[in-house]
Amino acid sequence: MKTVLRFFLYLIISIVVIGVCFVLYIQMDGIPKYSVEKTEFPQVIPDSASVVLGAKIASVQCVVCHTGSDHKLSGKLLTEVPPEFGEIHSANITQSKEHGIGNWSDAEIVYFLRTGVKPKTGQFVPLYMPKFPHMSDKDVKCVLAFLHSDMPIVQPSEIATVPCKPSFLTKFLSHVAFKKIPYPSATIVAPDTNNMVTFGKYLVTGRYDCYACHSADFKTVNMADPEKSPGYLGGGNALITENGNKIFSANITSDEETGIGTWTEEDFANVMRNMKNKDGHAVRPPMIPMNGLSDLEVNAMYAYLRSVPKIKDNVNRQWDNEDL
Length: 324
Fold this sequence. Notes:
There is one protein chain. By secondary structure, the chain is mainly α. It contains ten helices and four strands, in the order H-H-H-E-H-H-E-H-H-H-E-E-H-H. It is globular, with a radius of gyration of 22 Å. Residues 319-324 have low confidence and may be disordered.
């Protein structure tokens, strides 16, 4: 009997020691670094059309998180990131050669956008930075054209990027779940706009990344294969407003009771452009108005959302501790 008890005691001690060692390893190792492959991408020469499209994409993907106190993309404290991920600051991505990305080649910028790995250091940027492995090469070139443009928001800012202070949870997830996304082995081409469902899927998962906020949880979102994200487009993800309130993302599947299954195209267009949902209530931040969307884009996104498997999830749309 004593032998059995001694065995279980040693087993428990061993498990505790291994657990402590694992925690210490994650804490000390921090966010992983990866080897960086040499990739090619032609330097983009901006033209007016590409700058316009790039600015529209950036208004959804970059501007909200990266606009600093000087009204340029100089970075800021991301108060909308749930505190469980740590103290997170966005980077300076202006044309500054010292503090921004002014000395990055286009191949380096694209590598970072596709993989989440900084090309000069190999440092991985965790889940709070979206990755764009599905965005077409044409759209990526337009984003680059915007970053190279003479628009005031991307002109050099000498505000230094504040280092992030990721939590243990973020470090842990970066070791076991969120890892470097492989760089595409072939050119990525956007689908034909004549196929509304396929084009809509591209907009939701590639150009505008609606799925990340509107799936179940940032901790389980699948950037490499968005449709495998748990609760894909079913909402319920905890988001933080600029006032520090917690709000849960909406179910945007076509479920008639808990999603947008009873919405018309006009209803959908109104919420996307005017921030008014079907019952007339204002849609609250961190959702932003996407009034730059074309009719084609709105109709394609609507068509795709109608095709996505329904999820019945009556998301609590109230702010924490507030009766709205």
